[in-house]
Amino acid sequence: MTEQEVIEAYGVRLRPFHTGDTADVVDGCADPVSQRFVSNLPAPYTDVDARWWIEVGAPAAWTGGGAAYAIADPATDRLLGAVGLNNPVSARGQVEIGYWVRPAARGRGVATAATRALSDHAFAAGTARLELLTEPENASSQRVALAAGYRYEGSRRSAGSGRNGDRHDLLAWVRLADDPPGPTARLLPDLPGGLLTDGVVTVRRLAPDDAELMHRLHSRPEVVANQAPPVPPTPEATQRRCLLAESAWLTGVIARLMIVDVASGAPAGSCGMSITDAASGEGSVGYALLPEWRGRGYATRAVRLLAAWAFGSAGVTRLVAGTVPGNVASHRVLERVGFQREGLQRGRLPGLDGTRLDDLTFALLPTDLR
User: Which domain of life is it from (predicted)?
Assistant: First the structure.
């Protein structure tokens, strides 16, 4: 791959940087989002840093076997962002791809277009495997990876470093030369229109701002007693769960949702679905309500909405729910939706102090849904 090549594809132009890009490089790299997720950027980022990148840093990327492209608007040639290749591993035919986009250019598919364009070019030049590493909290970048045909491969433990030297995990997204260009099919697709509703309750994705309410709900003694093991979460664990809710959804781990009362807009509880066996199309559901919203059929409505989505766009063919045998209220919710008891699995779940808990299993098929 040569530095002089200009790539025009998918509505963007990839070209070398020039001194006229200085102000736009500062605009993109001094932005708080870029500073948060591109940990090797100087802080604060100044004109001096931008000029160093244009005159020294970008050329060095090419010398080292990588690439450093400016993403430009084909109509005006104005800089929109940057995309590049780094950390080549020639024995594997592998290289990493990364990008950033100026604030004014976000939300327009610029990063996805540039990633597709450079990916195609790298594969044409002989690359066999491209890796894209994202911070777990950076759901926007994960959506770019999926849109550009990358597949989630797992977590790289302690592969990232922060500005203060701390280590953290990174998520690895990979595309091979013979993979389709995308978008990548997901185990857990987005909700249609961003939510599910029956006019009485709405179910929407859990958000970072839900942390306080989620901690209040899942710390209640009766909620803790019906989970395994029956240990309340810490505030920090609940906050992180909410912060990573979108990432957990995108990676196919679990769809975590908030149940909201339509009339008041007040949160009433939470529910969720995970894929327990992708090969057989099986998913698992769970739910909990705040005390003031119980006895109104809200859990039944939420589980019914979740099941209809699971059997529809999520492509699930069977749903299961595990319950503590004494949780009669939860059993009634499931039975009203159409779940049927399938059996008692003795000692299946961990309890306190080395004890084991029985698990009463319910299951729902698409034809059972009421």
Answer: Bacteria
Is 165 found in the same domain as 207? no
Q: Which residues contact 173 (CB under 8 A, 6 or more apart)?
A: 131, 132, 133, 134, 142, 145, 146, 150, 151, 152, 153
pLDDT, one tens digit per residue, over 232-241 is 999 999 999 9
Band of the pLDDT at 225, cuts 50, 70, 90?
A: confident
Run of H or E residues at 119: helix 110-124
Per the structure, the complete domain to which residue 82 belongs is given by 7-176
Whether 334 contacts 324, CB under 8 Å? no
Ramachandran quadrant class, 93 (left: phi over 0; alpha: psi -120 to 50; beta: rest): left
Does the pLDDT at position 169 exceed 70?
A: yes
- Give the count of beta carbons closer than 10 Å to the beta carbon of residue 233: 16
d(CA 163, CA 285): 39
Query: What's the whole-number mean pLDDT along residues 93-119?
Result: 97
Would you say residue 40 lies in a domain? yes
Number of H helices, E strands in the chain: 12, 16
**pTM exceeds cut of 0.85:** yes
Angstrom distance (rounded) from CA 103 to CA 34: 9
Helices (H), 277-349: 298-311, 328-337
Nearest to 257 by CA among 296, 215, 218, 202: 202
User: With contact defined as beta carbons under 8 Å apart, do 272 and 196 qualify?
Assistant: no
Q: Has residue 154 been placed in a domain?
A: yes
Q: Is the pLDDT of residue 144 over 70?
A: yes
Which residues fall within 8 angstroms of residue 271, CB to CB, at 6 or more apart?
A: 203, 257, 259, 285, 286, 287, 288, 299, 302, 303, 306
Per-residue tokens: 245: 């809710």
Q: Compute and round to an integer the Cα radius of gyration of the chain.
A: 24
H/E element holding 356? strand 356-364
Mean pLDDT across 15-35: 97
Residues 6+ apart with CB under 8 A from 267: 210, 213, 258, 259, 260, 261, 290
Provide φ and ψ at 88, rounded to 5°. Answer: -70, 140
